[in-house]
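ARCHIVE CARD
SHELF: 3
SLOT: left
DATA:
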Amino acid sequence: MQTLEFAQLWNHTDNIGRAVALVLILMSITSWSVILGRGWDVWRLRRCLPTALSRFWSAPSLEGGHQLLLETPCSRLLAPLSAAALELGPAARHPGFDYPGQLTRSLRRALAEITMTLESGLTLLASTAAVAPFVGLFGTVWGIYHALLGISRASSVQLDVVAGPVGEALIMTAAGLFVAIPAVLAYNFLNRANRILMAAADGFAHDLYAQATAGEAWRPLEPRRPRVVGA
């Protein structure tokens, strides 16, 4: 009975088969780096979000709240919004300046930047999930072709002679699925997590706009929980 080992598969295949294996290994390493890195970021953001918002809204001023946000792990999720409001603060005193309109545009630009930050790495995961099975399938087809060429040169063909090379070739299909399935699951998880985080950022932008355009001096508010759906 033959046993299939990686060294045996590596030695029996040709350069094209080895290239396919290396591509799958590279895709797996890059996708897992994104999965672990983005998963850690999402966990930190979800964990610090209630505390960061409470500290911001209990600050004595907008400047103080912005500095408190910069000291939290949620700074890259919320600080661009407070920075947008802080930059337009002095312009609000000029007569004829459309402060609400300018603030709306600044907050929208900040939200777009936050969205781009949260979506980093998702394209790679989606590409890996879509391409890896076909790369593995190509490796299987090429491996079977390579195995059949070797069998055609054999003087006698028996079941164990055929099963070994064909089984080795089918490992490529399993390898492609092994690379693609974690990427699909991580992509769906991160998409949902990003929607939750963006809902919190959008709620914070709305509250910040209402506070900045109220026409009153900044006043500390009672600590509030973030409006996060599905947290």
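SLOT: right
DATA:
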Amino acid sequence: MSKAGVDQELIRQLAALLTETDLSEIEIETDELKLRVARQVAQAVTHVAAPAPAAAPAAVPAAAPTAADAAAHPGSVTSPMVGTAYLSPEPGAPAFVQPGKQVSEGETILIIEAMKTMNHIPAPRSGKLTAVLVDDGQPVEFGEPLFVIE
């Protein structure tokens, strides 16, 4: 079947199947045709926005004044990527580092999950960890201050 002669009924059936199964896209491929039908799902925006308000109120009272000062602090450690910050290696385990403790250069200070990959973030320098500016499970942006190491 040529591209000009695409079966519109097939496209309608696939679109209906998307709705029935609540999928966001379907792709089929034969020797003569490759067809992908996709739809935008408004639920994804709602799902992404829902966790942020839950995490933000907990962080705002304790971290908001410190985060503004920490960004300008020379010992500020910023996020190298966008993702979700985890302060411990697994749920219920002790945190990698605690405020007031010494850290060594290269020591894992947190994990940032990005695209289903757990990225161990090392301390960029040795020193005393004076502030933790993120909560466990909090979404972080590139360049966002995470810790202060003096």
